[in-house]
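Workshop exercise sheet. Pairs work together: one partner reads the sequence aloud, the other fills in the structure field after running the prediction. Swap roles for the next sheet.
Pair: D.N. / O.F.
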Amino acid sequence: MPDLAKLIQQEIETSGPITFARFMEQALYHPQLGYYKSPGTKIGRAGDFYTAPTVNPLFGAMLARQLYQMWGWAGHPDKWVVVEYGPGTGILARDITAALRQNHPDLYTVLVYYLIEISDALKKVQQQTLATSELVEINKFNWIDSLARIGPGYIENGCVLANELVDAFPVHLVKQSDSELQELYVGLRGGKDDIAFTLVAGPLSTPELAEYFSIQNVHLEKDQQAEVNLQAREWLAAVSSHLKHGYLITIDYGTTSEELYAAHRFDGTLRCFYKHRLVDDPLINIGGQDITAHVNFSILITWGEQLGLHKKDLTNQPQFLLNLGILDILQKQPDYTQNPDFVKINSAIKQLVLPGGMGGIFKVLVQEKGVS
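Structure field:
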């Protein structure tokens, strides 16, 4: 099998330096060799990073409460579609549907759950997770590769859920020079037997990059570097065009544009993860490490309004979970610390909602379309 780094090198040698977005797309999503397409554990203790659903079923149970509220706001329609993007190992789908089955059987009865997954390896893991669980019924779940596959081509009533999805979209890298905004491309350096990837500055590959900062009234400092996630707009457009009545929940790490492009983030937010270790260089270990960047929730709101997805709420993950009553769960457990369930749940809540835990840098954006 060819080496992914070699394939990217050949593309650059043939066509010249490529945008970082193109490089990141290949590194993460190449059909055979990309990080998310290749076999191997990505999530959990044996993988490269944790996600909130891997902490405890409580996270899914709280989202189930939110979905039940949304179903009520929509007038209790006789079919409620949930679409989960990038469902990982299937744990979140399992926990949401298990909580609905136990606590909200009226919604569970009319629930149809879709999982959008591009990785064949992860799809098999998800099917195994859900088929072997005694908590859910496998016939509740459907695997699709796009929203267009939902019959009759759109969601009449429902919710689209994206947990840690947008941060993995390919991003453009830009840098402010003395007089203008420039784009950073991936090129080559070194001799014939010692070639390596490097970043080289050049003109913007698309005027959308300058427009991105203009509509937010953001001005970078000289030599400041930043990321621009243009694919997020394409994704929002797809969601809006296929969602007739319902909601979009985006959960990810990130912040508003005011904070994201502040001077203290002079070098941007691009990060790589390998075996739970932070790696600063995205141009190494190609196809073997995760590459992410903070999500700009301000632009998701702005683009959403343009596309008919109206902001209902933006908050941090701890507050989102507290608003849904996550602390109520503790009250239902025997109040003594020797109870294993109490200890386990108490620890999970701390991880999800306390400062220093997983939830501190995560935001939750709820947008709505066609509902009052």
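Discussion prompt: The mean pLDDT is 90. What would you look at next?
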